[in-house]
Amino acid sequence: MLRLPRVVRSLCAFASASTSSCMGARLSRPRRTLSNSATGTATAASVASATHAASNTASSSSASSRSLSTSSTAANNANTTNDAMAEELRTKVCIIGSGPAGHTAAIYAARAELKPIMFEGFLANDVAAGGQLTTTTDVENFPGFPEGVLGAEICERFRKQSERFGTQIFTETVTKVDTTARPFKVQSKDRTVVADTIIIATGAVAKRLHFPGSGEGEGGFWQRGISACAVCDGAAPIFRNKPLVVIGGGDSAMEEATFLTKYASKVYIVHRRDELRASKIMQHRAMSNPKIEFLYSSEVVEAKGDDLLRSVMVKDKKTGETREVEANGLFFAIGHKPASDFLEGQLETDTDGYIVTKPGTTQTSVEGVFAAGDVQDKKWRQAVTAAGTGCMAALEAEHYLAAMNDQ
Amino acid sequence: MPAYLKTLDDFKKAIAEDSVVIIDFTASWCGPCRMIGPVFEKLAGQYGTIKCFKVDVDENSDAAGEAQIRAMPTFKVYKAGKQIDELMGASAEKLEAMFKKYA
Q1: Interface confidence (ipTM) of the complex
Q2: What is the pTM of this model?
Q3: A328 is in which domain, residue-wise?
């Protein structure tokens, strides 16, 4: 068990479209936690095995006595060739995505002996396989871990559990899905999977703004004061009793700003318009908080500092004037973008791109295609709620397949 | 398999070579680092003329500091003790292009 040094590092960054990287900060490391704890110890993330090559392991079957796998078994080749020619595989369940939703779906589907195939993604949307949890350090609110667990480690555990029951995992990013004909087709650069059902669990990515100082690398303060998750990072020591800025005008922005006042000396809410989008109750809550100051019709145009963020330049859109505001933290609360673009409109999505599911289910507008986790959840967006919907999706896929069999 | 350089001395010795050396500055908790690791290893195996090493920025923070690493992963190219190129971020295409360039 490795103790990470006290002179700590910051989190992995959500990258811009062209790079995936993690910032290294000299000072305190933001912690994804809702509590005030500052234990300073951490288990080292177990380094993933060198090859993520799909293992065609026979499912170490549980005592399940179901016999759902009938005639068309997955044509999994024991010798997967590395030809660029698209290799075609057949399965009852294809899972796209590798966060808590994807892996919970995989575990349930594998234990139902459906021999699921998962595409875990290779830096899909510039995020490592495992999803948003890989970009955080301590996870303290996922049940089952009284000491907390490193994000990368819990993802590794999800993966091991999926593999244990026979999930075949490809470290590839899905490039194309075809749900216009049955069975469905899911393609990556290296192979095509023909599937009776698909579970979409591709997650969502926090939106960011881009201006000088907002990026990673030299001169950028991403993860050195700039973050997209106040709930995750707000309790970090670097933000205690310091002035902070939240950009946004919706409920999230109000909630996060209010949350941050627990730690900050002052919180500015910077919004590009005069009117907030947030619900009245959230607006009132924020407005009646003595630590919150609203900067309307304003936008942050630059982030400045040295080792860490020290100030931001805020421009008044009406007067054109720019002034420097001392800030040691800047949080984007401008929404999430679900990773549904790759579906090219084949499933019904709402105006924000979230896959629409029938209430109380993971069923999408296409029969046999299910959606779980943040890609369909605008409201809760937690690892444990994603796991819950992943389970639902697998069970619904199983029921659907059984019904198909009965015909 | 690229070996880890554990100390500042190891690092200085490794980059002093006349031949091209590429170092992967990586961190165990960094998702993109873990994804690009196998790619780096594969390229290291393919391009025999380039000597490859890894530095874990937490375990060998002296070397990471000497190399002024601020983001992980960072790939740095050295020749005769001098840095001649670098790549920040986990891009398989750009990494392969860099190997091709210095092969």
Answers
A1: 0.84
A2: 0.72
A3: 226-334
